[in-house]
Amino acid sequence: MDPIIIFRHVDCEGPGYLGRVLEDRGLPWRMVRVDAGEPVPRQPRASGLVFMGGPMSVNDDLPWVRDELALIEAGAASGVPLLGHCLGGQLIARALGAEVTANGVKEIGWHEVTVAGHGEPWLAGIPERFPAFHWHGETFGLPAGAQLLFASAHCPHQGFAVDDTVLALQFHVEMTAALVREWIERYRQELTTAAGSPAVQSPDAMTARLESRIDALHEVADALYGRWLAAVARRG
Questions:
Q1: How far apart are CA 94 and CA 109, in angstroms?
Q2: What is the pLDDT of residue 104?
Q3: pLDDT tens for residues 107-160?
């Protein structure tokens, strides 16, 4: 089968737990390090396309943003499974015709997500409510034909699916304990600037009970990644 291609936009926001899942399943994958200047392919020759997060905006006039939007459009048209995390989810939404705008507040840290798409097959095995990790100031609209899957008190659009091949998430299901700690250090100035937001936690709050929170998050990730990878297997 063709490899799954993962697009990284900043060096501290790689595939995280998703990389572990792919390795455990023996699935081939490779990473395009957009942050290091590696080019975005023009054609979606892959079993699946995965787009990770980053501090930039899909509305920024950046060549690689335009290239990724074009690739997502081409991938969707040819039925390639698409998966987006935070910025990656916003890229998918924008490429499929939805707007990406400022969220009401910045949302950073552990906040509860609720299931919004009752009966949706994507949600099998996922609890009605669960704490998820967030780090975003923008949010996506819903493309035509998309099914809303998740919401939170501070962001009504936390995830959507299109059919059984496209999954776009606003929250970060790929987190590991190491990534949480790295982001706190890398983006500490943002935490200071946004400290007045009702949805921004302190570093101590984000790292409290971190291992147990990560374990619970990975149970949600296993369910979502498992369903997405089923679409990848059908294509492969």
A1: 25
A2: 93
A3: 999 999 999 977 789 999 999 999 999 999 999 999 999 999 999 999 999 999
| 3-state secondary structure (DSSP) of residue 17 | helix
Alpha helices, DSSP H, located in the chain: 17-25, 63-77, 87-95, 177-186, 188-193, 203-207, 210-235
Q: Count CA atoms closer than 13 A to 107's CA, side-chain side.
A: 26
Tokens of 89: 């989810």
User: Could you tell me which CATH class the domain 4-235 is placed in?
Assistant: alpha beta
- Contact between residue 52 and residue 13 where contact means Cβ atoms under 8 Å apart: yes
User: What would the two tokens of residue 131 be?
Assistant: 């704490």
pLDDT value for 123:
95
> Which tokens hold the place of 166?
């496209």
CA dihedral 212, 217, 223, 225 (to 10 degrees): -130
Spatial contact of 80 and 235, defined as CB atoms under 8 Å apart: yes
Q: Which residue type does 149 have?
A: L
Q: In sequence order, what are the residues at sequence separation of 6 or more whose Cβ sits closer than 8 angstroms to the Cβ of residue 9? A: 34, 35, 52, 53, 54, 56, 64, 87
Span 178-196, pLDDT tens digits = 999 999 999 999 999 988 8
For 31-43, the pLDDT digits (tens) are 999 999 999 999 8
Which sign does the torsion angle of CA 132, 135, 141, 144 carry?
negative
104 in Cβ contact with 62 (< 8 Å) = no
What's the pLDDT score for residue 118? Answer: 76
